[in-house]
């Protein structure tokens, strides 16, 4: 009989989380698959059942589920410090890379070669967003009622211009009512119901007792929640004291905290809310820059929601927060503030709620309101594709035939031939570069 692995040294876990931060391409599905292959199958740090139990909880939460899963497993292994380190190392490489790419974009984006590359990538972004809507919809829209919820969400945000939080609340209310009148229509499918494989005994196995630090108590939940909220409040008060409550940095702190609480369904679901606030309300960046930022986010490791770092960087740069001679520092400050307030709620959710989840293993409830929210997310993502498509394919009110051609080919390559995101973006970037020189 195969023996369970030895306890994991903190240094070994640190090396793994840092490595994961640099190689975690492919969005949440790819990142979760990487963690499963490494932690469940090869290293056997955690069993399949415990892994899926943690993942189910993370799927219920707003925020990036892959990041939250890393925090959860790090917390199980090495207490709160382990969870904090796992989460930080998962997102830090992406933040540093995006700050560098954002600087190149703002400082040299006007050059013809870079402009050509971005003109090729933009249609690919529209195809990627459509692909995200298709993938999520194929898992979520299982009957006419959920399709109607998705359609109503599309109309609400694309036509009526309702704020995203209101759409989430409306979908939750529809699910709460529908779950009582027609519960069969809101039963979740088997997104994670495949038969559990056995990879041998694990360090944290199915029947491993809950570690002492992971046992639930109301006092512990309140203590962690108060510490986490206190850190966020102290950070915002510091920004308000240094730069004023109406300053761009203070506004970013408050706005991205709200965005983090609205990100049910992944980054694509919350992007319309970010567009409404960052582009339309605050004017931190333009719609075209938002599309460019999403393209950069797709080419970097880490969670896609790290696009907020690009939004913060461009907002800090364009507003010259520290004067015209410190544009990079202003951009970097905006990127750090946006990232901090976006990810802090995820750490609080896991470190405060993890013990409660461990105490209810085997009894996680997937409720009708959350099913309805998942359906509404599909309509919201489609609206995002329509918005981006209008910016790219009808720039200046005229059809952009080259962009339309690249977008059509990219959509077919993505949906029909399952081309990966990175190869797709590279190919479209090369096409845009060649077309720019062909016109010259």
TrEMBL record:
Belongs to the chromate ion transporter (CHR) (TC 2.A.51) family. Pfam families: Chromate_transp. The chain crosses the membrane at residues 16-34, 54-77, 84-105, 111-132, 144-177, 221-243, 255-275, 304-322, 328-357, 369-393, 422-439. This is Chromate efflux transporter. It is found in: Cell membrane. PANTHER family: CHROMATE ION TRANSPORTER (EUROFUNG). It comes from the Bacteria. InterPro entries: Chr_Tranpt_l_chain (IPR014047), Chromate_transpt (IPR003370). It is a multi-pass membrane protein. Keywords: Cell membrane, Membrane, Transmembrane, Transmembrane helix.
């Amino acid at each position: 009989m195969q023996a369970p692995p030895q306890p994991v040294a903190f240094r070994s876990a640190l090396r793994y989380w840092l490595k994961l931060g640099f190689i975690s391409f492919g969005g949440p599905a790819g990142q979760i698959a990487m963690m499963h292959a490494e932690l469940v199958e090869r290293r056997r740090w955690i069993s399949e059942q415990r892994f899926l139990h943690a993942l189910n909880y993370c799927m219920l939460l707003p925020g990036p589920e892959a990041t939250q899963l890393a925090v959860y497993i790090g917390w199980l292994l090495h207490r709160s410090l382990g969870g904090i380190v796992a989460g930080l190392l998962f997102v830090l490489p992406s933040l540093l890379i995006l700050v560098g790419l954002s600087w190149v974009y703002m400082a040299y984006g006007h050059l013809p070669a870079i402009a050509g590359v971005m003109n090729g990538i933009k249609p690919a972004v529209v195809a990627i967003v459509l692909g995200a809507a298709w993938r999520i919809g194929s898992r979520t829209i299982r009957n006419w009622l959920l399709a109607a919820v998705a359609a109503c969400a599309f109309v609400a945000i694309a036509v009526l211009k309702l704020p995203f939080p209101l759409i989430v609340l409306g979908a939750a209310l529809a699910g709460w009512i529908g779950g009582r009148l027609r519960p069969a229509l809101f039963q979740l499918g088997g997104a994670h119901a495949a038969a559990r494989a056995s990879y041998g005994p694990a360090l944290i196995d199915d029947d491993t007792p809950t570690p002492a630090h992971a046992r639930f108590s109301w006092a512990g939940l309140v203590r962690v929640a108060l510490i986490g909220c206190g850190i966020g409040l102290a950070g915002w008060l510091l920004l308000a004291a240094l730069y004023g409550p109406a300053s761009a940095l203070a506004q970013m702190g408050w706005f991205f905290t709200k965005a983090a609480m609205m990100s049910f369904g992944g980054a694509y679901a919350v992007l319309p809310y970010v567009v409404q606030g960052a582009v339309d309300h605050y004017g931190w960046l333009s719609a075209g820059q938002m599309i460019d930022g999403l393209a950069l986010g797709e080419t970097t490791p880490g969670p896609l929601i790290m696009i907020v770092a690009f939004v913060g960087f461009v907002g800090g740069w364009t507003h010259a927060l520290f004067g015209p001679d410190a544009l990079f520092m202003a951009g970097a400050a905006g990127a750090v503030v946006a990232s901090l307030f976006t990810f802090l709620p995820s750490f609080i959710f896991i470190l405060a709620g993890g013990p409660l989840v461990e105490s209810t293993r085997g009894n996680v409830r997937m409720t009708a309101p959350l099913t309805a929210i998942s359906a509404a997310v599909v309509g919201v993502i489609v609206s995002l594709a329509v918005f981006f498509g209008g910016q790219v394919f009808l720039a200046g009110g005229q059809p952009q035939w080259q962009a339309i051609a690249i977008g059509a080919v990219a959509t077919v390559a993505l949906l029909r031939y399952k081309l990966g995101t990175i190869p797709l973006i590279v190919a479209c970037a090369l096409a845009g570069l060649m077309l720019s020189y062909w016109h010259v």
